[in-house]
Amino acid sequence: MSDPRFSIENFFSYGFRPFFLFAYLFAAFSMTAWLAWVGLHAMKAQVLRPTIVVPPHEWHAHEMLFGYALAAIAGFLLTAVPNWTNSKPVSGGALMLLVSSWLAGRMAIWFSAYLPTLMVAVFDLAFIPMLLAFVAKALLRRWAPRNFIFIPILSLLFAANIMTHVEWAGLLDAGPELTNRLAINAVVLLVTIIGGRVVPAFTTNVLRRESHILLPTSRKPLEIFSILSMVAVLIVEALGFDGWLAGTVAIVAALAHAVRLAGWRGLQTLGKPILWVLHLGYAWLVAGLAFKAAAHFDLMSEATAIHALTIGAVGTITMAVMTRASLGHTGRTLRVSNPITLAYLLISASAVVRIVVPALLPAYYNEGVVIAGVLWVLAFVIVSVVFWPILTLPRIISTFSPATRCVREREQQPTSKTRSQIASTPRKV
Known about the structure:
Elements: H1 8-11, H2 16-42, H3 56-85, H4 92-110, H5 117-125, H6 127-141, H7 145-148, H8 150-168, H9 176-209, H10 220-238, H11 244-262, H12 273-296, H13 302-329, H14 338-360, H15 365-392, H16 402-411, H17 416-424
């Protein structure tokens, strides 16, 4: 048995521990703050001394992207990149510095009414370049184009954040819609790439273990086209195009990702929440792109597409990846409890309510927003409670049941090739 006590050294031993935990907590806090403002607005009340200098809806959009989503992305990259490059993970003081930078950005934005504009911008903008430096250093140790793609996307996110702060300072009149759209599409592009790697891989591992004949297929031309279609959506919207051109590009992207998803055998995962949630999140991506196309053709509100992509796709996939990675990297069985399954469902319920109520019952807009927000908060409160000990306590070393231990030992039995390698390797004294 491992030591059950909390330690700072253990908590900052791997990027997923602090960043996933803070992502969970911040997701609940930031949405609660947003709901408080919606409630006050509905009652036509005002906060006498607001702490944020920007309009609350702009704070909400910014913090869900550069607060929650970026923390989830950072935790994933700081965990996955060392595995891809066979390098040491960022830990200890360096990881503390990264986490402190992210926290400083959140605090600076929250208290922006009392701080100089430049100070707020510096504190908030510092995190992505620091993250880029650590990620790029590891990726350059083992060059692989498919991994290096994260560098330009993170750089694009940084550019979007710069534009946001320049606009808040009154030096740019591009409109928050443009900068938000750029940031959202950059995050969705990241989710597209990460999802394309983890969803078929995780599904294949389980289905092959269960001797399924039909396994997920990932054809390289389709994979490349799917990613490029999302890049096209980002470029077209960043350039300010609307109407038939932007709508056509979005519907092509939706179809490409639908075909991609269909090849991953999602129906065979219905009995496994830790798997079907990944497919569900990617289905929200397809729906969000289809809604985006409809919005460009003036068939629905752009807000519908935005919340399908952010709550539905980004919210679901990030939660799915974070919970699975947390279990795997702390030595636990890759199986989620009923409360976590409920949290998965609550995220999708939140997206459905946020989309359906304003569209079909516009008179109940505020009520719909509040219900959707409450469902989101409940989901992340549940995940925070369940995963707090998992992320803060040491990795489990030997807590498997006898049956599980036998399976693990069987899976770890060396092959004939491995045995010869072991035999020929000199032993260290």
